[in-house]
Design a protein that fits this description.
This protein is α/β, with parallel strands linked by helices. The chain is built from eight helices and twelve strands. The strands form three sheets. A five-stranded mixed sheet has the order 3-2-1-11-12.
Amino acid sequence: MTTYVIGDLQGCLTPLHRLLDHIQYDPASDSLWFVGDLINRGPESLQALRFVKSLGDKAVTVLGNHDLHLLAVIHGVRKASRKDTLDEILKAPDRDELSHWLAHRPLLHTDERLGCTLVHAGIHPQWSLELAHALADEVCEKLETELADFLQHMYGNAPALWSNELSGRERLRFTVNAFTRMRYCHSNGELDFTFNGPPSAAPAQLYPWYAAPNRQQLNTRIIYGHWSSHPAIGPHNAIPTDRGCVWGGSLTAFAIEPEESYWVHNS
């Protein structure tokens, strides 16, 4: 039995099938974790979404920013952009079924036995794992019970500073931004969305979220995607998986067990 974490799929189903063949994935015994952004920008968004959904409890999927964008488009909160590849999903006869399934995916998944936590972008440096899960649950409750209203007020970069006093829509927006959009923070934990390049080229005042000063020490390894410009290797407790398959890079599978290893297949 092997548990593989798959990097940002973004509608690249054919490379996924090639990668699964390469690693000799056995659906009867192996499990797949997806870091989110199953869809958009790639050519097979509808097929990718259907495939991952069809895996049932053999797959774990957390939400990414593109997944939330799709929900916003479906519910009339946002218009699709010219770069989006969502038309097939929007016109599909099973669109509502797929949308319902997607809206019920978590933002965060922890497996205590494996000592690993799955998230799309990262965990804010000022959060404990317990707080992160509590905040993720708050958002997921809104996604399940007040989806349209939540999506209507989800967008925006403010507030950028975390406070336990945040409440309502501001608290939810900060939580979503940290889990699905974050790359860099200032030394005080303020989120910064002005730069998305690799850490080696970052302005001096910015820190990768996992290297922010006084970051909470979490008793788990965080496996994340979202950051295609990040080097393939990161700190032992923060494992990147996005190699930019949709941009002509590679799709990755990170094997958590029985032995840690990276598998890469070019798009």
